[in-house]
Amino acid sequence: MTLEGFFERDSSCIALLVSLCTLLFFFNLGGRDLWAPDEGEYAQISQEMLETGDWVVPRMNGQPTAQKPPLFNWSIAIISLPLGSVTEVTARLPSALGGLSGVLATYWLGKTLYNNRRLAFLAATVLAISPIYFHQARWVQVDMLLCAFVTLSLSLFYYGYINHEIRQRAFLLGSFCAGLGSLTKGPVAIVLPFLTITIFLILQKQIKESLNQRLVIYLGVIFAVSLPWYIASYLRGGAEFTKELILKHNLQMFLDTWSHKQPIYYYLWNLPWEFFPWVVFLPAAVYLLLLKTEERPQRNFLLAWAVGTFCLFSLAQAKQAKYLLPMLPSLALIMARFWEEILLGEETFSYSKWVLIPAGAMVVCMALAGTLGLWFIKGRYPEYLHFLIPLSSFLILLGGSFFLSLLYGRRWIALVTLLVGLSLLLFYYHTFIQKELNLHKSVRPFCQEAVRFVKARPLGIFGIGYHQIGPYLFYTGKRLRTFSDQTALTDFLGSSERVFCIVEEAHLTTLKGTHKIPVYSLLSASVGHRRVHLISNRPG
Question: What are the residues whose beta carbons fall under 8 Å from the beta carbon of 244, sequence distance 6 or more?
Answer without folding.
Answer: 66
